[in-house]
Amino acid sequence: MKALPELFKNNKKWASEIWASNPEFFSRLAAQQAPEYLWIGCSDSRVPANEIVGLLPGELFVHRNVGNLVIHTDMNCLSVLQYAVDMLKIKHVIVCGHYGCGGIQAALENKPHGLVDNWLRHIRDIHHRHRDKLSILSKAEQMRKLCELNAVEQVINVGNTTIIQDAWKRGQKIAIHGWIYDIADGLLRDLSVCVTSRRELDLLQKKI
Ligand code: CO
């Protein structure tokens, strides 16, 4: 017996619907992918990248981890970024945080969560760096603000990678965007931190 039959049933239905409306869809995608966007988002099951922005398979290159972090020693994330920039020549990197992020909530708590605490340390560092402006807020506001600040910090991290720095140096046009998604209303908000050059990145770093 096949494991998880309901998921295979869903898959068959999904594929046959696409076949019916667009018979060339899968053969075209099998030949090549040419997405314009790289999405770096949280693993949270409530934040499905393609659905939120209404993009089809083939239109969005995706990397997701707990807390949508971009860490300079994370070969997984950096490999995705390098492939997206150097091979796929994507034009936009979207770092999308979300309100109500369990990773950020856990980083704000003073109790152990096991191995993941080593990963969440990066969020705790961001909290510490911004403690002055966060400490004057209520607990709920602090949580929302930290979700936003974390996304902005990751925009800066993307911009500071050798991958993006080299791409900008050789004149490749890439914009890095910081967004936040609200799981409570399904809407995206632009955090207005778009950077397209070393200069804009420096300005953002000074501002935050
Ligand atoms: Co999350």
Structure, described:
This protein is of the alpha/beta class. It has two domains: 31 residues, no CATH class; 173 residues, 3-Layer(aba) Sandwich (Beta-carbonic Anhydrase, Chain A), CATH 3.40.1050. The protein is 52% helix and 15% strand. The protein is built from ten helices and five strands, in the order ααβαβαβαααααββα. Strands 2-1-3-4-5 form a five-stranded mixed sheet. Helix 5 packs across helix 6. The site of cobalt (II) ion (CO) has 7 residues, from helix 5.
Query: Quick one: how many beta strands?
Result: 5
The name CATH uses for the topology of the largest domain is: Beta-carbonic Anhydrase, Chain A
Cα distance spanning the termini? 55 Å
The largest β sheet comes out as:
5 strands, mixed
> How many helical stretches?
10
Q: Beta-sheet strand percentage?
A: 5-15%
Radius of gyration from the alpha-carbon trace, in angstroms = 19 Å
Features of the shown structure:
208 residues, alpha/beta, Beta-carbonic Anhydrase, Chain A, 5-stranded mixed sheet, 5 strands, 52% helix, globular, binds cobalt (II) ion
Short account of what is shown:
This protein has helices at residues 5-21, 25-31, 49-53, 75-87, 102-108, 116-129, 131-135, 139-160, 162-169, 198-207, and strands at residues 37-42, 60-65, 92-98, 175-182, 187-190. The chain has 208 residues and is of the alpha/beta class.
Write the layout of secondary structure elements.
Elements: H1 5-21, H2 25-31, E1 37-42, H3 49-53, E2 60-65, H4 75-87, E3 92-98, H5 102-108, H6 116-129, H7 131-135, H8 139-160, H9 162-169, E4 175-182, E5 187-190, H10 198-207
Parallel strand pairs: 1-2, 1-3, 3-4
Antiparallel strand pairs: 4-5
Helix pairs in contact: 5-6
